[in-house]
Amino acid sequence: MRPFAYERATDVRSAVAACVAGTADGAGAVYLGGGTNLVDLMRLGVVSPGVLVDITRLPFDEIEETAGGGLLIGAGVRNSDLAAHPLVRRRYPMLAQSVVAGASGQIRNMATVGGNLLQRTRCSYFQDVSKPCNKRVPGSGCPARKGDHRNLAVIGQSEACVATHPSDMAVPLAALGAVVHIAGPGGSRQVPMPGFHRLPGDAPERDTVLEPGDLVTAVEVPPLPFATRSRYRKVRDRASFAFAVVSVAAALDLEDGMVRDCRIALGGVAHIPWRAERAESALRGSPATEAAFAQAAAEELAGTTPLPHNAFKVPLARNVVVRTLLDLVEAP
Amino acid sequence: MTTVAAPSAGTALDRVDGPEKVTGRARYAYENVPADLAYAVVVQATVSRGEVRAVDADSVLQLPGMIATIWHENAPRLAPVEDAELTVLQSPRVAYRGQVVAVVVAETLESATEAARLLRVDYRPEPHDVELRPDHPGMYRPDHVNPNYATDSELGDPDTALAFASVVVDATYTTPAQHHNPIEPHATVALWDADGLTLYDATQSTSGVRATIAPLFALPPESVRVISPYVGGGFGGKGAPHAQVVLAALAAKQVGRPVKLAATRRQMFAVTGYRTPTVQRVRLGADEDGKLSAIVHEAFEQTATIKEFAEQTTVVTRMMYAAPHRRTSHRLVRLDVPVPTWMRAPGETPGMFALESAMDELAVACGIDPVELRVRNEPTIDPERGLPFSSRNLVACLRGGAERFGWAGRDPEPGVRRRGRQLIGTGVASSTYPVYRMPSQASARAEPGGGFTVRIAAADIGTGARTVLTQIAADALRVPPAQVRMEVGDSALPRASVAGGSSGTASWGTAVLRACEGLMDALHRRAGDVPPGGLEASADTAEELRSQRPLSRHAYGAQFAEVGVDLDTGEVRVLRLLGAFAAGRIINPKTARSQLIGGMTMGLSMALLEESVMDLEFGDYLNRDLAQYHVAACADVRDVDAFWIEEEDPDLNPMGSKGIGEIGIVGTAAAIANAVYHATGIRVRDLPIRLDRLIGGGI
Amino acid sequence: MNGEGNSGPVFADPITADILLSVNGDERPITVDTRETLLDTLREHLDLIGAKKGCDHGQCGACTVLVDGRRVKSCLTLTVTVDDREITTVEGLAVDGALHPMQAAFVERDAFQCGYCTPGQLCSAVAMVREVADGWPSAVTADVSGPAALDDDEIRERMSGNLCRCGAYVNIVAAIKQVGS
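Structure tokens for the assembled complex are given below, as produced in the milestone run.
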């Protein structure tokens, strides 16, 4: 690991200023939250900043109710506190479920909400600095297409990159249309999900729309009363402490056996948490039946372009979407 | 001293080193801190074959705190030995990606790690060949297979028998490369002084490391001392020394200071051994009643270009079931891959996955209950060696296990049992493991102040050896275990065999027992009087072992699995796993049960999760960490239990014990695969049984 | 993530900080390299060898310690970030020389073999029992809005961040259940 300067920020302005100054220095500066992904990547040599700006003492660790009945979640809230919060558990069960489905108890105690959104892909080639990777070294190539890609993307990928986004939490947040609050050198702005994350295109080195110096300060979850009927289902090889092979976050608004509204997002299938908008529109106004769910899933997944070793994710995603929606219908 | 104590053997004594382990006081290899210590970190080849042209050693030496960069041009010369895995940094050749090409030494771990990252190494790469295929033109017949078995065997006329058999199973099974992944990485602290070389090493054999390392540095064995009181798991990976031991000693020699060196978890996927992948074809011929007429088991495996390790994958088939016509073989190919080695029950583990899966396929083909099928093919003598069994209680394990598991009345129809969204199935497989015993020495000493000290260079890698040897000694000395102080894990102690081959208790126990008996005789001659300097006796079992009569000696077991397979996702969860074992006399039921269920847990992990994926383009194992190479986590392991049947076998050793460290993993994967077939109707012949094999198979 | 550069090797001097580290109730003044993890500080500089290095990437749990009472991975914690926190390692679990009930239960239930993952399992278990008592949900809690029980399924799920390669899980669960109930 390259030597780095450590600065502990006490307020947002000084944090951003320190990061900008560090970057301008040529050394490269990054914000340090829980560190569960950043320290890992620094040890791998994937990221080698010259300055770490510790943002864990910023006043970002609160969860507040918003006027309309939504929640404003500080970017520094630890994953375990988010999952344990009574309002999160009651209003957005799929969000609490997604968080506890991720990582391990120890990591959830460290990892922050902001950092969770900014996790880098777990693609083996990205993590191995002795091999090419367009995300790590733009233009160096993508060995995953011909090599190992069992866990990689089946939708929205590009020639340059077939990586997946590893977050569980981001999946329900995408389904909920959460809004990411950002403070940057030029002021503050808000970016709704799923637009916060980027598809790889020909610039896979950029995971999100963040610009240098930008700091995620909060995630605002809009009110969605029917999200009380929501669920996160994660499919994984190991029974726990494993990244998703495929996951689904879904919320269902039912009336007389019909789908009045719904929210669906998929994890483990794309470079971003994948909002299943086609499936959602197909379902709105349709009967809440297995056939309708299967049809909606098929419409969403018609756009997949799997590789030889991950084609199984397409029927898997279809099955999990259908089953999760059926479970929601059957839920009390 | 003629105190009479109730025998300790047979009782569930708590681990004698338990308090050290739960308080964090137990000191493992890397945790030793001689004065003036420096940190060494290795640099691995980033080509899979070729030569190191240059190492820019000087640039990183500018880094603050740097002490040395060592590579083949400036490394101390090692004496030539046969084992090319150990003659590190002696030549520019790169035999596999990840081989060590340099070591950097610095004042701090952080500086050494950074220097290793920055060190520029220039290579002349060559094309590599890393793919194991049974039709590889380089397949050859090794002289023998590990440790010293005949490569091939043939009895009768298996081809004709297969041609005329009423029922034939002909199937190919594959097992992937697997890495041991003990939670303690391989680590060594090396220290040179006037007496020679001291190594604090994570090893399964202090005596073995000493014997191997001394000649490399042209030292007499007595000038090398290897200390290893606590070892954080081995599973065969720490059975023989690997590169890191030599590198630590060599670096310490070069810099003239004590050096500590540990392989990182990622490095362990290249430099500390693994289980070879296998391709196995099994052919069984039987009559309609399931009675075998022919068994043919052929294995194809890989080894490295620099060292041959030929796993004995089909040897187990030579003694498992009766059949007049039989053949087994092993073929090996040298690839540009890391060096494979022993991993928990080498041979039996992959071999029994194939054989016991095939037996299940035969049971299905014949319409016979798989427990019954095995009973019908029980041999009366060892089928290929022609020797009587010292004891063989496979049938008792199958019957006893079936009863306890609730096997009776099992509907053989696959794919018809549902519980919620899960398909449910059950499966069975046999287990077995040979009884090995190796020569060892021990000493026993009556202390003048009371109590006894028993010494042997055995290794307790978590097996409970320290505890069980204490019990054996206590009984021989007729005192409670608390009066015995057991010293192990130091090559300065009487020489002992490796903690391998499930031979520890048999080998070391015999030596400890004989030493204690000798001491009791000496005490008796002195009417119990302990002189002021204490009284000591020692033993060497070499002679005793030579006089052992030839018999077929094996432990046996039967494993029963119940699985649930998610209809929507193909996720397999093992709901129940029960092992029934016959392994001679059990000396400590508490640690024995832990060993058995520990092996079964590793078998479960192998069945469902473990696979080291070869990167064909770059030539290394790709998934080099514990987030990608999955081993079973707590949530994967639900209802796992083991029991044993009473077995008296006077032809083993004075304790009457058989080894239990490995048999637990043998057969587990087949029992689970067979249960998955019963649940889904899908026969998975390629491990691990991941959900894509079932989604793709059309559940 | 910004700050990622590919400008070739940079030969920079280590940067250090003088901090006061509170470990097991003791204040320990220490100079740390900013790159140093809490795990390496404990093991290499304070001779607190209980926390173990198994993977150094947060993937095995052997390094688990408590920071302000919460279980964390010390291999992913930079020491310089925890100067104002209270750190407890396995060495700090026993009180007045008597084993913590969790330690005693691990011995009694034979909840370990090689012992290398054990300190991490113990720290994790002690904190986990508290998490359940505090009503935190887990991935196997049927109703995420309700309380959780300390049953076998919950223990197994919540302890899955601590790998045990010897396969002592069954006994670990039994030991924790014994202490927790």
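The mean pLDDT of chain A is 97. Chain A touches chain B through 33 residues (CB under 8 Å). Further analysis is deferred to the final report.
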